[in-house]
Amino acid sequence: MLRRLLIAFCLLFCATTAAHADPLKGEDGYDLWLRYRPVEAAKISDYKTRSSVIVTAKSPTLDAAASELQRGLGGMLGATPPNSSTIADGAIVLVTPADNRGFAIPADLDREGFVIKSTTLDGHPVTVIAGGSDVGVLYGAFRYLKLIQTGQTTAGLDIQDAPKLDLRVLDHWDNLDGHVERGYAGTSLWDWWRLPDLVDTRYTDYARANASIGINGAVLNNVNAKADSLTEPYLKKAAAIAETLRPYGMKIYLSARFSAPMELGGLKTADPEDPAVAAWWQMKANEIYSIIPDFGGFLVKANSEGQPGPGDYKRTHAQGANMLAKALKPHGGIVMWRAFVYSEHDATDRAKQAYLEFQPSDGQFADNVLVQIKNGAIDFQPREPFHPLFGAMPKTQQMMEFQITKEYLGFATHLAYLAPMWEEALQADTFAKGKGSTVANVIDGTLDGHKLTGMAGVANIGDDRNWTGSDFDQANWYAFGRFAWNPESKSADIATDWARMTWSNDPKVVATIVPMMMGSREAVVHYMTPLGLAHLMDTGHHYGPGPWVSELGRPEWNPAYYHKADANGIGFDRTKTGSNALAQYHPAAAKPWLDPKKTDERFLLWFHHVPWDFKMKSGRPLWDELVVTYSQGVDEVSAMRKTWAGLEGQIDAARFDAVTANLTIQEREAQWWRDACLTYFQSISKRPLPAGLTLPGTTVEDYRKRVFPYAPGRG
Ligand code: BDP
């Protein structure tokens, strides 16, 4: 008993002294990039003079803007500026077209856009945050706070900005039982069981975080949808979430199961050309809008991986999408129809199937439909060339789908900042209308003059305290919002802002973290799928390597289908001598990939099957290059771990330790990836390792025997 008491006393005492000794202790990641910690003392009075009072009119959104400013300024400057209705020196004045207080709002200001201007109103020097609407003001308030969070001046401001895309949406692959498909951050945020009575306060913090980066929509349920989410009880639950998100400019959407008229309506068919089916959807849409007046619309995964769809009735995707679009149209709703399709009954290269199914329907989709296309033609791999559908359907509104959750890049454990991958996809040139027809310009509507534009990100958010399962995965949520706001953004700028807001404004810390983030995705490519390889992950859960898997029923579920390693060489021939997937690209886009000798080596094995002794740019034979690149990936992770270790004492202890633990796991798993893949490929290439590099001697059989029945995030 005495011993226990002593231990308890010691624990308490030690914890208290440690907290005193280490002022950085105690962050748990919950605050994301909205930490609002005190700024440098030297700057406080400067900022304060321009943020003394907040002058605003009343509306739930303007209230949210004002209270965010109070929270943020209070935290960073040590004193919370009061709300006031009268303009005074140093006030922040929030204005909208409905109540502009004499400030001339630019006539062309977008509804969601804002102006932040240092000016004079009623003879007082003030900062005006003007929005094209209330939500524009909210976005402006977050931008103002970001200036202080990132150590910039708030003097002489003249900023105008607006989102470049209309729909900036998170897709939650959340099931009604709380499991998140491909989720690595705990279970679903949405407590479907207790909603609508219990509305978790976290939903407000979720909405704040999204509004801070301009995300304006959330699809609440998994694309592999249950019809139940369209029943009245679940619509009422969704309505409670919608109500919480509304002041923050967010709409909710639902994934719709195409066969719902049969499952819920008792119809014998879900044929989109059957009038009874169309009538059922119209009735359902009317019901939804009676419960959720600003409902955004439907996301649909049809005729893909076992989901029902119009193809079940020999109808096209356009016929299916348009039928739903018609039901939503009177209410202002839209349809996001996914192009992620491939069939087990089709022996065609999987990378070609979506194009073959969708491209002929160009021009047939209704004006409230967007075709939602993954960045690459296979499936969110660490590196893929851009999807050939981009730019190939000029009469169709195309939106981007990125995966924020890291299904194929090491789950939440591996540090991989995805923004460089997204920037690579967005800046890829489709040549659809000549040089400079980038994917970014396809999706922002400028290339083909489309009105409705968008970007979706498969969310990495769950009920983990730090939201995303790891501190660095918050950066991917943040970066997604920034790219959805402006697809021309630069990943290094985003990383810099995020690091400053999330970790520290100390230039040394920023200069350490940003390069580490910028190289992290490439490191994953190196130790998982270098030189254009793809989909080597073990089957089902996609955790760890499984290049040897070749016996599953559906050919394209086997990693061996993708690497095609044999005694002669390795890689997927997508030229004329192979699947000719290259022909789906504009000839100018395809040209640099036609000849293996000229192909950018990062895509070599994606497009070509080349001999093991193929001479690489380094002068090394391909086999040696493969070994060297895998090894380099491991070295890069070791370097990240060491770099991070050097930040000890400059980062709060709890988050520092959490990142350290993840990097330790990542280093071990990178080594496993390298060793397992090279051991397997060596069993086929029969070549020695280049001098100085070794393998541990574990057999392919031993690697194959490792099974992970409890790996998270299963489909
Ligand atoms: C794959 C995932 C699967 C998803 C599918 C999709 O493995 O869980 O349902 O994509 O996007 O990447 O529909």
List keywords for this structure.
715 residues, Alpha-d-glucuronidase, C-terminal Domain, eight-stranded parallel beta barrel, 21 helices, alpha/beta, six-stranded mixed sheet, TIM Barrel, binds beta-D-glucopyranuronic acid
Instruction: Write the CATH homologous superfamily of the largest domain.
Output: Glycosidases
Q: Estimate percent helicity.
A: 25-40%
What count of domains describes the coordinates? Answer: 3
Q: Give me the side-by-side strand order of the main sheet.
A: 7-8-9-10-11-12-13-14
Please give the alpha-carbon distance between the first and last residues: 49 Å
Explain what this protein looks like in three dimensions:
Homodimer. Residues 5-23 have low confidence and may be disordered. This protein folds into three domains: 26-161, Chitobiase/beta-hexosaminidase domain 2-like (Chitobiase, domain 2, 2-Layer Sandwich); 182-484, TIM Barrel (Alpha-Beta Barrel); 526-572 and 609-704, Alpha-Beta Complex (Alpha-d-glucuronidase, C-terminal Domain). The protein has 21 helices and 16 strands. It is an alpha/beta fold and 715 residues long. The strands form three sheets. Strands 7-8-9-10-11-12-13-14 form an eight-stranded parallel β-barrel. Strands 2-1-3-5-4-6 form a six-stranded mixed β-sheet, with helices on one face. Strands 15-16 form a two-stranded antiparallel sheet. The protein has helices at residues 2-21, 41-49, 60-77, 134-149, 202-212, 232-245, 260-263, 275-291, 317-328, 350-358, 419-426, 439-443, 474-485, 491-502, 507-528, 559-563, 587-594, 604-607, 622-645, 653-685, 700-705, and strands at residues 53-55, 83-84, 91-95, 114-121, 124-131, 158-161, 167-171, 217-219, 251-255, 297-300, 334-338, 369-374, 398-403, 454-458, 569-570, 610-611. Bound molecules: beta-D-glucopyranuronic acid (BDP). Residues 181-182, 223-224, 301, 305, 340, 379-380, 407, 715 line the site of beta-D-glucopyranuronic acid.
